[in-house]
Structure formats: C-alpha cells, structure tokens
C-alpha cells in the first residue's frame, strides 16, 4: 500500500510509530508496523547489499533485516540496549528494520502533516511519504515500501531461498 496523506489518515488515523535514527525522528504509519523486537542474532546472507544485515527467525518465519543507518548513508553505530528491530509489512512481506531507538506511538492531526517536499529531479527522496510539523520538531514519515523498492526486496528474498 502506497502511503499518501489520505491513506495515512484514513487507514492509520494519524497514528505512527516513531523511531530515532541518529539525531532524526522518523515515523512509520502504524498499520505498516507489525511489531518491535529487541536485537537478536541476525544470520548474514551472502552476496546481498551492505544494508542487508541478514535474516532472523521470528517464530518460525524467516524475516529479512535491513539496517536503516546503512541504507540512509549514516555512519555505522554499535548496537546498544535501545537498538531494536521494527518489523514492517512491505506489501504482504515482513521485513525487519534496525533503528537506533523506539520512541513510541504519536498521533498527529491533518493540519500538522504535509506531503513530501519536492527536492529536485536528481535527488531520490521517494522514501519520504510526508513531513509532520510539531511545535518543537519535524518528523519524517517514511514510505517504507519505497525504502526497499520491489526489485531490491525481490533480490534479497530470492537470496534467502
């Protein structure tokens, strides 16, 4: 499901799971977030991109795990007690996303939400669904299905078979 302002408020009712990545706050529409699990053993998969950390066994289901820090080009950081894996639904497939810290659930009003800004034709920011302007901060709402496009996801899933 592609996230637009309408679908964000119709399906998720303005609720999003917020996380920290570096110093920046990001949000996932609440209906895309399936669960949050602590860091665990991640089995690497050969010949996958650097951001693909491997797979986990989540109650008998193999779930690919990506590192958002690496995917977004941020400096690597050691995991700590706050580091966790947010399991999201990417068009029917579960994928784990490593984040620095879970902040919680935030509910926003439509007037606080703006569509993703146009950043120019040579800048790829299709992973940004929108921006939430709160009094003291801005939250980037992720179009998580675009963080990993279908070609990347399919190649990763095929590599795990």
Tags for this model:
alpha+beta; six-stranded mixed sheet; 11 strands; 161 residues; OB fold (Dihydrolipoamide Acetyltransferase, E2P); 4 helices; five-stranded mixed sheet
Textual characterization of the structure:
The protein has 161 residues and is α+β, with helices and mostly antiparallel strands. It has one domain (5-159): OB fold (Dihydrolipoamide Acetyltransferase, E2P). 16% of the residues lie in helices and 42% in strands. It contains four helices and eleven strands, in the order αβββββαββββββαα. It has helices spanning 5-11, 68-71, 144-147, 150-159, and strands at 15-21, 24-29, 33-38, 52-58, 61-67, 84-90, 93-99, 101-107, 113-115, 128-133, 138-142. The strands form two sheets. A six-stranded mixed β-sheet has the order 8-1-2-11-10-9. The chain has a five-stranded mixed β-sheet with strand order 3-6-7-5-4. β6 and β7 (93-99) form a beta hairpin. The protein is globular. 29% of the residues are buried. The model has no long low-confidence stretch (mean pLDDT 83).
Considering the protein shown, what is the CATH homologous superfamily?
A: CheA-289, Domain 4
Count of discrete structural domains? 1
Strand content: 35-45%
DSSP helix count?
4
Helical fraction equals: 10-25%
For the termini, the CA-CA separation is 25 Å
Helix/strand-derived category reads alpha+beta
What is the succession of H and E elements? HEEEEEHEEEEEEHH
Radius of gyration: 15 Å
- Counting DSSP E segments of at least 2 residues, the number of strands comes to 11
General shape? globular
- CATH class group: Mainly Beta
Strand order of the largest sheet: 8-1-2-11-10-9
Which runs of at least 5 residues are low in confidence (pLDDT < 50)?
none
The CATH level-2 architecture is identified as Beta Barrel
CATH topology: OB fold (Dihydrolipoamide Acetyltransferase, E2P)
Mean pLDDT equals 83
> What is the makeup of the main sheet?
6 strands, mixed
């Amino acid at each position: 499901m592609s996230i637009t302002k309408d679908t964000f408020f119709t399906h998720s009712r303005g609720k999003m799971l917020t996380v920290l990545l570096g110093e920046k706050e990001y949000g996932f529409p609440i209906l895309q977030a399936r669960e949050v699990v602590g860091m665990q053993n991640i089995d690497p998969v050969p010949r996958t991109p650097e951001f693909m950390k491997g797979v986990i066994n989540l109650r008998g289901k193999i779930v690919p795990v990506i590192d958002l820090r690496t995917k977004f080009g941020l400096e690597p950081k050691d995991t700590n007690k706050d580091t966790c894996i947010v399991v999201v639904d990417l068009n029917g497939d579960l994928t784990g996303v490593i984040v620095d810290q879970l902040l919680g659930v935030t509910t926003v009003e439509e007037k606080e939400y703006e569509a993703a800004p146009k950043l120019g034709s040579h800048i790829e920011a299709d992973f940004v669904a929108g921006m939430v302007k709160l009094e003291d901060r801005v939250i980037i709402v992720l179009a998580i299905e675009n963080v990993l496009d279908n070609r990347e996801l399919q190649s990763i899933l095929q590599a795990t078979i």
